[in-house]
């Protein structure tokens, strides 16, 4: 499991270095996850080519262990909220309004995109 966690963290580190080095507008951990996905897909492809059994790598076990304790990652965010309670008290109404407005805009855009795509698909079906 230690090697698997090291692989996960190494992919995250590589992603962070590439993003900062190239100045990409993308979070480093996201690029690291994409790299990890590519590595896992390559591992599966090589296992299929070798016609050997796909052994259960520790990455799955390590990721399940991380997901089991995912709630611990919210502790720093909760501490940050508690530290900024005075700021939340002074700007709380504005924050709530912005959050509500962003949810409404997101829902409206989603509905519009869905309707547009369904209309386009309907036009393609009719000859």
UniProtKB/TrEMBL annotation:
Gene Ontology cellular component terms for the protein in this record: plasma membrane
Compartments where located: Cell membrane
PANTHER family registered for this protein in UniProt: HOLIN-LIKE PROTEIN CIDA (PTHR33931:SF2), HOLIN-LIKE PROTEIN CIDA-RELATED (PTHR33931)
Pfam short name (any one): LrgA
InterPro entries: LrgA/CidA (IPR005538)
Protein name (database record): CidA/LrgA family protein
Principal localisation: membrane
Keyword terms of this UniProt record: Cell membrane, Membrane, Transmembrane, Transmembrane helix
Annotated TM spans: 25-42, 63-82, 88-114
Membrane topology, from the record: Multi-pass membrane protein
């Amino acid at each position: 499991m230690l090697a698997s966690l090291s692989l996960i963290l190494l992919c995250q580190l590589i992603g962070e270095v590439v993003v900062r080095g190239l100045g990409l507008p993308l979070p480093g951990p996201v690029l690291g996850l994409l790299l990890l996905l590519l590595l896992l897909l390559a591992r599966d492809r090589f296992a299929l080519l070798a016609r050997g059994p796909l052994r259960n790598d520790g990455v799955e076990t390590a990721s399940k262990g991380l997901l089991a304790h995912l709630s611990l990652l919210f502790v720093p965010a909760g501490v940050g909220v508690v530290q900024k309670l005075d700021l939340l008290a002074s700007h709380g109404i504005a924050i709530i309004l912005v959050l509500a407005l962003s949810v409404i805009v997101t829902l409206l855009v989603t509905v519009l995109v869905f309707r547009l795509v369904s209309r386009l698909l309907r036009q393609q079906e009719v000859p």
